[in-house]
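Final report, results section. Input specification for complex C-07:
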Amino acid sequence: MTQLQLSDTEKMIEFAIAQAHTLNVTVNIAIVDTAGHLIAFQRMDGALVGAIDIAIKKAYTAALFQKPTHELGERSLPGQPLFGIESSNGGLITFAGGLPITFSENENVEKVCIGAIGVSGSTIENDLSIAKAALRL
Amino acid sequence: MTQLQLSDTEKMIEFAIAQAHTLNVTVNIAIVDTAGHLIAFQRMDGALVGAIDIAIKKAYTAALFQKPTHELGERSLPGQPLFGIESSNGGLITFAGGLPITFSENENVEKVCIGAIGVSGSTIENDLSIAKAALRL
Amino acid sequence: MTQLQLSDTEKMIEFAIAQAHTLNVTVNIAIVDTAGHLIAFQRMDGALVGAIDIAIKKAYTAALFQKPTHELGERSLPGQPLFGIESSNGGLITFAGGLPITFSENENVEKVCIGAIGVSGSTIENDLSIAKAALRL
Amino acid sequence: MTQLQLSDTEKMIEFAIAQAHTLNVTVNIAIVDTAGHLIAFQRMDGALVGAIDIAIKKAYTAALFQKPTHELGERSLPGQPLFGIESSNGGLITFAGGLPITFSENENVEKVCIGAIGVSGSTIENDLSIAKAALRL
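Structure output:
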């Protein structure tokens, strides 16, 4: 299986920070492998200290479930099928800002998840916008 | 950056306890630096033992997110943007009683967060009232 | 049973800080009740951040076992009867700087433990000296 | 107080990776602020997954105690003054590879700790050599 390389994460973080500058916010950015283990992390100067762990947990959550964190969030509201899922796996974050990173050799092959990114420190809209920018989505 | 000194915390705790006496309640009071590390703590005689950890976590939460804990609480209700945030950072407390401590050299300079206070042991209304009194808000 | 009051801790911390000034060091000082629950804590400006938790755990350890932490330490070395005890109770600290606080109505009555103090941030000799000064030992 | 900037960490990590290449090993590199909060992290391709947490904890330990991790390690052996310290603060790592990052405006001013670096994934000799290279020591 194709694996995310450290060199891949540098461009992603560069794109993320460029988008954060455009939005005039400061965030934490975490990138993990398919197992949820950290590959790279950067805290922009002045970004919220409380959002370090959230960025890492968003990436971790998106990797472990191979889904955007906000999709898990919709399904884990009271009354929904996955209510309470956030207490599993040592603690998940299920609001927006975590996205799986996918890859396919060519357009005839289905994309596979090769890791995930998590962004935290601004509004969830900005966090998600920055995560998307990192992946050129 | 200006840092909160131990001597600053003494007056804050004195004001807090005075307000607790006015309200005829007993509480725990914790003050942390911007990183969430404890600077000072006092438990009034008879204050709830279960509220020790809550006072410390309220201060920790307000410092890490530079926001009153109840503002995080409103935004972390089911269906709100930050639902589930309380499981991050080793456990947050997102109900009222935690406030950031801010400071500016003079009124022309924007205030910066230099720490936070957390109060717990009575109702959330009283806890918040005591936290505000500590900061003369 | 006589209980440690918040007002008692103020003098103890005052004596501790005076001794720290004499030794020209900065430390964290924690005082707990007989159950190990925090009553008061102060971090002197510049004291080691890593020693906050250690001061609290020294007080906690001395209270739970009603012994100076260094006595437990001697008995928990490899080959000694209590080897490994430090992993109990959510984590103990068994080196010098934690002392039980004892009290008796008069000299004909045996002293009872009413709480404990923990000091951390300097050498263990200084930490213990400061803890003793706090209790006028 | 001078604070470590994200841009400072980029060169440190670059130097670290250059040294890792020289030694023909792969490691994890973590950089934290004085409070122990993560600023930057990189895992070289192929570096041990179990060493991610160790690199972060080495940096955290060196920051919280403003000392190289191996100095704490020497002092926490059985019979030494700080035996058992590693169970404090949520878990420390006290073998080589964590170093405080110090700074002074000029040579007439005493250096202050502005953060710490932790390296893990190879032998402790290589990990320390890489941490030193990162700081040009």
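Chain B has one domain: 6-134. Helices of chain B lie at 6-23, 50-65, 69-75, 124-134. This concludes the modelling results for the funded period.
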